[in-house]
């Protein structure tokens, strides 16, 4: 198939679209026979109408070209009224539509021209036959159907040509963008290597020779370090952006101690608040003790938002607000700074864009920080948003899942599924019908991960919960084959916790194994549990117990 031809499927589509009955064709032949001697007059009138458009008149200013086109149009009247609408006809009309685009005809010109021609043919036929409006109605309907078919073919060709050109241009832009990203990534790496050496050697001299150098010399070294760190931050922004654009930004989720993460971020805020005499306030209402996410990228987003807040706030307050619900962590950075004008809010996340509102003059940087932060939030399962009022302040906020869906964000999937009450819908089906499902209840993420690493290679699917309450809800929903449970309750209260799991009749048949740092086999037996395993866990002992508990009943 040539570039200027329709595919067989498209031709068949147009043949189905054709709406000309044998009666319509007979009426069209009557019109043709009546106006055949008048075709040249009709075309002369047609060109008087369309050449009233100055741009068309300029395009058709050559007399020879105009004469040739008139002869073609005279023949087209015959074609319109008598031609068989077959494969050859459809392909020819399609090529004519593509030619309209090649010569630069505005679509509204040739669309209008078809309907001008339709009206002229109808007027001359009515005058030649002396028909009234009622008698003309079937002729007009047949003529309009023929014109609509040809017009639609021409428009389709025009649109397909534009679409092909747009796709080609889009691909060229995409390729140019890819090459730009690769260049930036390569150059960023090339720049970072010598810059890291400058920072390391300067810091080495600054540390080792501090007591031998004058204050003036030490100040110069500090300036070198400060500017080098600033340059490194700019290079890192460009490198991150190039990775994101190239689709090579990978997350590395792990269990994160939220208290430690918050302490680290809070420690950074004290030096950030000093230059502009700001006050930092932490409002931490988060109750979750651990997150499964990429700690480096989460910290990068929060620190970038805090850095911007301190930069554009003077003698004011910057707040970091944290809270969570059953499934997500909510983070907000609020400031009493200069704010952002309403008309600039839609540009705030654009690459290299730095708004120039009053008080937000250029303060250095690449203009990529917010773009990168937004993209990282998207990768981590969230969305970064902003609310701001000029002269009042800004609030940037986002939420992230407490447990990142590793499979959906480029991780290898070697992670335990942590669920809370009501979240069982996130759990994928058992890989195979015979896959055994283990529910592990422990408030220590490392223990859950250890159980996963031990049991997944053996064909088990491990589901984790941090509390007995979550475990009971999840157990009812996912119906595990065995429950492993860390019992950390005062003497006599274990039964209350285990009772939560035993009160549902469907769960009573599921064997439960106690995990404990103490030897509590006797207590486990009293509680009706199937066994007790000491911590730290012994993998072979664990696998042997599960194999025994889940062995099929002997047939006898």
Descriptive account of the structure:
With 556 residues, the protein is of the alpha/beta class. It has four domains: 8-172, Globin-like, CATH 1.10.490.10; 186-245; 256-405, 2-Layer Sandwich (Heat Shock Protein 90); 416-549, Rossmann fold, CATH 3.40.50. It is built from 19 helices and 13 strands. It has helices spanning 8-17, 22-35, 39-50, 54-59, 63-82, 87-102, 107-129, 133-208, 215-245, 258-273, 295-311, 342-345, 369-379, 445-455, 468-478, 494-502, 505-508, 521-526, 539-549; strands at residues 254-257, 279-284, 290-293, 317-324, 328-335, 385-389, 393-401, 417-418, 436-441, 460-465, 482-486, 512-516, 531-534. The chain has a six-stranded parallel sheet with strand order 8-10-9-11-12-13. It has a five-stranded mixed sheet with strand order 2-4-5-7-6, with helices on one face. Strand 6 (385-389) and strand 7 form a beta hairpin. Helix 3 packs across helix 5, helix 7 (107-129) packs antiparallel against helix 8 (133-208) and helix 10 (258-273) runs parallel beside helix 11 (295-311). The protein is extended, with a radius of gyration of 38 Å. Mean pLDDT is 80; it is low at 406-415.
Keywords for this structure?
single chain; 556 residues; alpha/beta; Globin-like; Heat Shock Protein 90; 6-stranded parallel β-sheet; 19 helices; 13 strands; 55% helix; 13% strand; extended
